[in-house]
Model the fold of this input.
Amino acid sequence: MSTILIKNGSYRGTQVSGMIFELVKGFQTGAKGGYVTVKADGYFGPDLPDVVRVNVPSIEDIEFVTGETTIQPKVEVVAQETDEEVMNRIEERFEILHQMTRATISGDVRAMIVVGPPGVGKSYGVEFELEKSGLFDKISGKKIKYEVVKGAMTPIGLYCTLYRHSDANNVLVFDDCDSVFQDELALNILKAALDSGKKRKIHWNSDSAMLRREGVPDMFDFKGGAIFITNLKFDNIKSKKMQDHLEALQSRCHFLDLTLDTMRDKFLRIKQIFRQGQLFNDYDFTPEQGDEILAFMDANQNRLREMSLRMALKLADLTKVSKDNWKALAVSTCMKNS
Done:
């Protein structure tokens, strides 16, 4: 059994420098820095676990008292992506978004779910491909074969919308329409619409004056495609019943997570768009002005109300209000109070 002297360390804010503990697991590094796992032996009170992690800055801050050969310190190095690697990963994901949208338009893909935080360009990528594909229909006056639905939607509203776009090569986009993911009846309708069988029949099995008024039958074949754009993390849904429905829906769809899970990821996505020259197209900015806005966002990542493309444009608007005082305006209008 090994014991160690902690020369510099703490547990939950309590300094333990100079104390000796029985070692359970050697030095490791995690998201919050280095630590060793030791037996508490009641040092921190009777209500705490017998085994705890004590934070130590480095392996040099521990010293073996006995049994060094029994348990060797182990350093686990967590690989850290460089900024360029993060931006390349994100760019690849967004290129997949464009490619899969084109595949849904052509009918090669039946449905796709796109998950990512708000304000990073999810909707733009999908709508860009849809508008490009529908350009000739728009010019010739033909019916546009896609529709973007936003906001809340009832199950019967979903049924009617699917009917209106049930022909082959039609694409329905549900953009932040998260209510359909939280209603059991709506999810059952979607599961029928996206079933993997050759024929996808959708039924409305109760009398409805709305369907009669709209001329919508109580049964039809859905042959179109669907794209769901959402900020909702399906794993965070607590209801077991709803989780089962969502898993069934995911099994019928291609699932694309844009992997923008940290504040750093979101900032580097904004930086990526800026470097491509697409962020401040509508502003008469010098390169230095754009750099200054990005530097301000980088320095205030944890104070801004959100890290998004929309926030970058808000800051750009403030530079039009006052080139010399826009940062003070941003502190008052774009930052958290604490």
Summary: The two ends are 48 Å apart (CA to CA).
